Amino acid sequence: MKTNTTRTFYLVPYLAWMVLFVVAPILLVAYYSFFDISGQFTLDNYKNFFTSVYLKLTLSSFWYAFLITLISLIIAYPTAYLLTKTKHKQLWLLLIIIPSWINLLLKTYSFIGIFGLYGPINAFLDAIGIGSKQILFTDFSFIFVSVYIFIPFMILPIFNALDKLNPALIDASRDLGASPWTTFQKVILPLTMNGVKSGIQVVFIPALSLFMITRLIAGNKVITLGTAIEQQFLVTQNWGMGSTIAVFLIIFMVVIMIITNQRDKGASINGKIK
């Protein structure tokens, strides 16, 4: 009885936090989604979301989030693997993570200077005879900066999964005559898939709702769901439509979390054995 009472007591702050800062804001957003710009109850916001404009916007958001996540994964996996093989892996991992502690706005503004017409990139292009290029306010600059910002969050869970991998399994695979690619495909990747899924979650979900980078780096040439929400709330003052887009964004995020949900199969097996 005392154990149950103590457990319930310690759950109270957690439940209060969840209700006040997760459940209540979501319910408030859902409530505002049923009102138009004049404050009248309506379902037109949901009808408007399924028009070609917002459907195209949704597909564009998913496309850019997919590209950012894919590029981050392609770079992060071999990087995390090499980190596990280095002598001072924790130090190298720390050096990769440290940039993520810097303010996001500050990092974004720094890339404006780097990619600008008079920045170091264009200065280098001029020096080698190529000439200045419009790098800023392009899809390339948007994706590059987004990958730079999110890649530490992709590396960390993959590194943790690789670092926990039993090297005896890899040795056994090689002893049985498996090639390096077969070993990776049949042993390493399946056993580290939880780390990959975690990385996809923490990159794809926030990439789906980017808005500040789209404005500063892409010059609003890239429009995402996050940008649309910002414009509806701050520019057109249509809180109802902004809330409706936010509702669908929340739904998309929940679906992605369900799809990429990871379960520790090893722990489940051990639990059954016990």
UniProtKB/TrEMBL annotation:
Keywords for the protein's UniProt record, in alphabetical order: Cell membrane, Membrane, Transmembrane, Transmembrane helix, Transport
Subcellular location: Cell membrane
InterPro entries cross-referenced by the UniProt entry: MetI-like, MetI-like_sf
Record's keyword annotation contains Transmembrane helix: yes
Topology with respect to the bilayer: Multi-pass membrane protein
PROSITE patterns with a match to the protein in the record: ABC_TM1
Ranges annotated as spanning the membrane: 12-34, 62-84, 91-115, 135-159, 199-218, 238-259
Location of the ABC transmembrane type-1 domain: 58-260
Matches recorded under PANTHER family: INNER MEMBRANE ABC TRANSPORTER PERMEASE PROTEIN YDCU-RELATED (PTHR42929:SF1), INNER MEMBRANE ABC TRANSPORTER PERMEASE PROTEIN YDCU-RELATED-RELATED (PTHR42929)
Family stated for the protein in its record: Belongs to the binding-protein-dependent transport system permease family. CysTW subfamily.
Protein's name according to its UniProt entry: ABC transporter permease
Provenance organism: Chungangia koreensis
